[in-house]
Amino acid sequence: MSKRKKSPKKKLKHGLNHIIRKVFSENSDSYLTHKQVCTLINVREGAIRKLTYAVLEDLVESGYLKANGHGVYQLNAQNNFLEGIIQLTARGAGYVILDDKEKDDVYIHPNNLSQALDGDRVKIQMSNRGRSKPEGNVIEVLHRERTQFVGTIKAQEKFAFLIPDNTRVGTDIFIPKEKLNGAKNGDKALVKITKWPKSADNPYGEVVQSLGNSGGNDVEMISILVNQGIDYTFPNKVLAQAESVGMNLDPKEIARRHDFRTITTFTIDPLDAKDFDDAISFKRLENGNLELGVHIADVSHYVQPGTPMDVEALKRSNSVYLVDRVIPMLPEQLSNLACSLRPNEDKFSFSAVFEMDESGKVYDRWFGKTVIHSNRRFTYEEAQEIIEGADGDHRDEILILDKIAKVLRKRRLKSGAMNIESEEVRFRLDEEGFPEEVIIKRSKDAHKLVEEFMLLANRNVAEFVSKPGKKEAKVPFIYRCHDKPSSEKIALFNLFVQKFGYDVDTTDQKMISRNINALLNDIRLKNEYSIIQTMAIRSMAKATYETHNIGHYGLSFEHYTHFTSPIRRYADLVVHRVVQEELTKKKHQYGSDLDDICKRISRMERKAVEAERESTKYFQTLFVVDKIGEEFDGTVSGIAEFGIFVRMDENQCEGMIPLSEIPGDRFHFDADDYAIKGSRTKKEYTIGDKVRVKIFEVSTRKRQIDLEII
Question: What are the backbone angles phi and psi of residue 600, rounded to the nearest 5°?
Answer without folding.
Answer: -65, -50
